[in-house]
Specification:
Blueprint lengths: L1 E3 L2 H6 L7 E5 L20 H23 L6 H21 L4 H8 L10 H10 L4 E8 H10 L7 E6 L3 E2 L2 E2 L20 H8 L3 E6 L16 E6 L4 H11 L2 E3 L6 H8 L1
Parallel strand pairs: 2-3, 2-7, 3-4, 7-8, 8-9
Antiparallel strand pairs: 1-9, 5-6
Length: 264
Amino acid sequence: MKYINRPNKLGTIKLTKDNYYVVLDFDKTITNQESLDSWMALVDFDIYGENCKKDIEKLNAKYEPFELDYTLDEKVKEKYMKEWYQKSMDLLYRYKLTNSNLKKALQKDTLNFRKGAKDFLQKLQQDNIPVIILSAGIGNVIEEFLKKQECYTNNIFIISNFVLFENDQMKPFTAPILHSMNKRIEGKLLEPLQRAINQKQYAILCGDIIEDIQMIAKEKLENTITIGFLNNKIKENLEVYQKNYDIVLTDEEACFQEVEKIIY
């Protein structure tokens, strides 16, 4: 289904090739609902073993319900998300993640585009539209996936948790970790990109959880078309998605062909 929640706002935004940029979440937004997320996609349990699998599953079982709980106090939720993402990163280091094994794991095709996403990215490249992928996942995985799909073009900029390697071994992660509650582009763009963005009147934002709306500053949302892919618990979450997103896409309409209709 396709739910248009703010038709008056959408009617005032007139997009041209030169007046907008695009901000996209990656996991379950660019990728489809059946894909692994970019954390899980890099771990090949044939290499890292059953204990690694159990440790990851234990973390996910504890913290994932908090991420999808929209009744939870925001400060409490942010505390849980910071714990989850940091412990997940520490676990990768403990199990000695290597760059070569990361690339090997991605050969298994555990990541797949959401329907229409590849064509959408290609059209944005043809029109030279800036695309910012802002993800709380693993930037190395996103970069490798886009390269493999021949979609990592010069108009795409990735802001994410990038793991550093030395002699193929993962180095301790010391940067501030991006998680689902602190994903914002403010202060994270290189100066040339920031200048280019400042010249754009409008933005398109696509995400799959409510917190993805925070990727763009609140004061800029009036000139941003926000599109939410509602993947889980549609009946339970539809109302809160409609309150937050300008457009909500579910089921067969949760595809980038529907996003294209808004732009082209």
